[in-house]
Request: fold
Amino acid sequence: MIDISTSYMGLQLKSPIVVASSSLTGTVEGVSKCAEAGAGAVVLKSLFEEQITAETAALSEHADDYSGYGEAYDYLQGYGMELGPQQYLDLVSQSKKAVDIPIIASMNCDSGGRWAEYATKLENAGADAIELNVSIMPTSAKEEGLSIVDSYLRILHEVKQKVKIPVAMKVGPYFTSFANFVDRLTHDRAEAPAYSVGWLGKNKDVGKITWKSADGLVLFNRFYKLDIDVDNLKLIHGQPYSSPTEISYSLRWLSLLAGKAGCDLAGNTGIHDGRDAVKALLAGAKVVQICSTLFLNGLEQIGVMEQQLRDWMAEHNYENLCDFRGLLSQSKSDTPEDHERLQYIKLFVGME
Ligand SMILES: Cc1cc2nc3c(=O)[nH]c(=O)nc-3n(C[C@H](O)[C@H](O)[C@H](O)COP(=O)(O)O)c2cc1C
Reply:
């Protein structure tokens, strides 16, 4: 009997197929449709930090100022849901009542601060977990890399201090030393903050603080794509949906981090069918999050993917996901260097 149930951040899911944060999960109706289609869990459309720290109406008047900020811009343009903080809490509590799968609330944030208190409200509204969609644009020539890493750690720390429910970090792939970043993000540790002492008290020697680790890590967010219209000489939206070829970078890091990160891993970006889901699970993911394939193929793709996963498991005589999860991760490999290969040189000699 094939069983595709799994745990993720301590939550019990009947399926590893999770609907990623997007407008598909921005209404109770959307959440209900995802549950009916067989999703193991849903991540609600993100509530943006700007929604918490400023008046939504005032921000909307200045939407063009945010044209470089992808999803925030989408939100302000009405592309995503237009929910203020109280409505978002209603979305959480009503979704909880409407479906019997875990509801993961999502906050998009790029700084710490008072908005983090909102995490408590999400917990009280019934969210089973919180996903922090953190993306800091490193455009300041004055800010060093470690300072930016500190900001990610600080955001997680502040939210973890406020809630008991699990907290996942959803990040992009652009870090100088990703393994080190993940190590710090996913293991509890007592350490003095390297850069961000300002947020604890200017020039104050705060000594060591106990940083709380993430319960889940989503690899990777796919950011708003910028393009250029050469006819009209202006910036335009790039392709909003991923293609299956984009799975490669997630597979690389899932397989490198499985068994080493101190938390559950979720695969994301470029997972379009059941075989893609199998790849992410073999690399070491506990769950996969999907978005583009649902916009392109409809919510019934969830059931299609689950059947493809079951068929593959039957073909390979696996009954449970844990029978093969992480089988192709670096920690289980006899040739770990294969996971680190970056250059084509030997592979393609003579093929050019
Ligand atoms: C229309 C649209 C809206 C999205 N909105 C959000 C969002 O509010 N919060 C978030 O964390 N990710 C958002 N995303 C990113 C997706 O959750 C997902 O990480 C990304 O699309 C990569 O997965 P995929 O390859 O399955 O599409 C959005 C993506 C799309 C296409």
Notes: The two ends are 48 Å apart (CA to CA). Residues 2 and 78 are 42 Å apart (CA to CA). Residues 145-162 form the longest helix (18 residues). Residues 6-340 form a domain with the TIM Barrel fold (CATH 3.20.20.70).
